[in-house]
């Protein structure tokens, strides 16, 4: 099939009374969902032309997905923004794309970062959506009897891409408003009508669950089929803790980005040399390929790639050539064809001629019993040169000194990787999808 909407139409015919989506107190069957999409498409057809970019707020709701699918049906292009984006910022995005008509194959424009300023609008085709969905179906083993719980914002690839395999397999989706209400999260996972449940969680969300709700999470072990993570590096200590709590659950670490699509994944819960190994992203999925450039960067190919940056051919040419997207991720491929990430060029800190990946320092610090969150940054000094500085959020129930933390890190890393400076802070700045906001600290 050529679009996710063709799968939705098929589901309405084959599984008309199957619950398609649950959200808050509302649920909709596949037949009712398709009927709503068709009605919405009729309403929108008189307002938007093919290729027109339609800017919309991405509410965590069934109605948002109805509009999203309907825009695809009339060959318009969906540009979903954060639900709480200020109206002034939304107006800027509308103005930015008001005169732009997307190529015929484009279904969505997704932003790679925030929606203010000159963010990069990535064009995603219908072919890419289907390829991403098929990659996940085959790699994660998504089946029709699965309930998939989405917690993250569905205007970004991390969570939006999980809609695709659910629709393609005729499974059921449960949409939540983030993880602020842990009770609602565990209530969704405990749905008695489903024996198999799964979810996608960024590493920061997993850490919250490990710290605040480990007993409730462990109670889900008999029914939790798999958890997928991505968007940021997963600390080794959190991997081990999750494996202990969920011994029969598959735990996937996925390599993906808005530009590349869904590329590779690795089940780090399986015994062997990949067990709980941070940085291992597994082998390429069925519609994707990757290789390492002469500079040591990951390059991706296949049907999941973007169509380019919207209305910016010059910017597109800087990362996409010869049907290949060239990333800034440093990586290697082992003898089993598995991709291993080793940081990004713009994140590496040069200390006295040594190159330090801050993720190594953060992983070591997060393994210390009293550290709730942290980030390793560069502290430049005109006299002493670059120094490593660790910003640390303490767990409220644990007390320790920075000297004790430094000693712990020194048992795990080479001496030049041990931070010289430490600062206790209340919070660590992160992006909308849980990534450490390194750019803001560099500024």
How would you sum up this structure, described in words?
- This protein is α/β, with parallel strands linked by helices and 443 residues long.
- It folds into 2 domains: 4-342, ANL, N-terminal domain (Rossmann fold); 346-442, GMP Synthetase, Chain A, domain 3.
- The protein is 32% helix and 30% strand.
- The chain contains 14 helices and 24 strands.
- Strands 1, 2, 7, 8, 9, 10, 11, 12, 13, 14, 15, 17, 18 and 19 form a 14-stranded mixed β-sheet that branches.
- Helix 1 packs across helix 2, helix 1 packs parallel to helix 6 and helix 2 packs across helix 3 (62-73).
- The longest helix has 16 residues, at 30-45.
- The radius of gyration is 22 Å and the shape is globular.
Q: In summary, what is this structure?
A:
With 443 residues, this protein is α/β, with parallel strands linked by helices.
What would the keywords be for this entry?
443 residues, alpha/beta, Rossmann fold, GMP Synthetase, Chain A, domain 3, 2 domains, 14-stranded mixed sheet, 3-stranded antiparallel sheet, 14 helices, globular
In the CATH scheme, the class of the largest domain would be Alpha Beta
Largest sheet: 14 strands, mixed
The count of β-strands is 24
First-to-last CA distance:
46 Å
Q: Per CATH, what is the topology of the largest domain? A: Rossmann fold
The amount of beta strand, in percent, is: 25-35%
Output the number of helix runs.
14
What is the CATH homologous superfamily assignment of the largest domain? ANL, N-terminal domain
Structural class, by secondary structure, is: alpha/beta
Helix share, percent: 25-40%
Shape by Cα distribution: globular
CATH A-level architecture of the largest domain? 3-Layer(aba) Sandwich
What's the overall average pLDDT, rounded? 91
Which value, in Å, is the CA radius of gyration?
Answer: 22 Å
Low-confidence stretches: none
For the record, the count of structural domains works out to 2
């Amino acid at each position: 099939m050529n679009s996710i909407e063709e799968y939705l139409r098929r589901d309405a015919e084959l599984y008309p009374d199957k619950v398609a989506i649950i959200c808050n107190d509302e649920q909709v069957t596949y037949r009712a969902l398709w009927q709503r999409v068709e009605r919405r498409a009729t309403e929108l057809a008189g307002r938007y032309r093919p290729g027109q970019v339609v800017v919309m707020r991405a509410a965590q709701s069934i109605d948002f997905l109805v509009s999203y699918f309907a825009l695809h049906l009339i060959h318009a292009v969906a540009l979903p923004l954060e639900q709480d984006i200020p109206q002034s910022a939304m107006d800027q995005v509308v103005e930015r794309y008001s005169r732009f008509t997307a190529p015929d194959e484009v279904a969505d424009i997704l932003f790679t970062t925030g929606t203010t300023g000159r963010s990069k609008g990535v064009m995603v085709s219908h072919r890419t959506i289907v390829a991403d969905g098929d990659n996940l179906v085959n790699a994660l083993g998504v089946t029709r009897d699965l309930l998939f719980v989405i917690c993250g914002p569905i205007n970004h690839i991390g969570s939006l891409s999980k809609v695709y395999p659910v629709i393609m397999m005729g499974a059921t989706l449960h949409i939540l408003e983030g993880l602020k209400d842990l009770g609602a999260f565990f209530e969704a996972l405990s749905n008695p009508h489903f024996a198999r449940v799964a979810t996608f969680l960024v590493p920061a969300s997993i850490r919250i669950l490990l710290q605040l709700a480990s007993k409730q999470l462990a109670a889900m072990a008999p029914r939790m089929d798999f958890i997928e993570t991505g968007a940021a590096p997963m600390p080794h200590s959190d991997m081990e803790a999750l494996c202990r709590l969920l011994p029969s659950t598959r735990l996937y670490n996925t390599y993906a980005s808005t530009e590349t699509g869904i590329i590779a994944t690795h089940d780090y819960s399986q015994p062997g040399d990949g067990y709980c190994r941070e940085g291992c992203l597994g082998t390429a999925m069925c519609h994707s390929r990757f290789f390492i450039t002469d500079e040591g960067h990951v390059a991706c190919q296949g049907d999941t790639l973007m169509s380019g940056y919207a209305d910016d051919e010059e910017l597109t040419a800087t990362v996409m050539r010869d049907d290949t997207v060239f990333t800034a991720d440093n990586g290697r491929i082992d003898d089993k064809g598995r991709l291993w990430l080793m940081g990004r060029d713009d994140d590496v800190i040069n200390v006295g001629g040594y190159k330090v990946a801050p993720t190594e320092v953060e992983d070591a610090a997060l393994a210390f019993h009293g550290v709730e969150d942290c980030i390793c940054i560069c502290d430049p000094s005109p006299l002493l040169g670059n120094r490593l500085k660790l910003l640390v959020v303490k767990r409220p129930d644990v007390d320790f000194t920075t000297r004790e933390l430094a000693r712990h890190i020194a048992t795990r890393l080479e001496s030049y990787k041990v931070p010289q400076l430490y600062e206790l802070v209340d919070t660590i700045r992160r992006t909308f999808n849980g990534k450490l906001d390194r750019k803001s600290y560099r500024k």
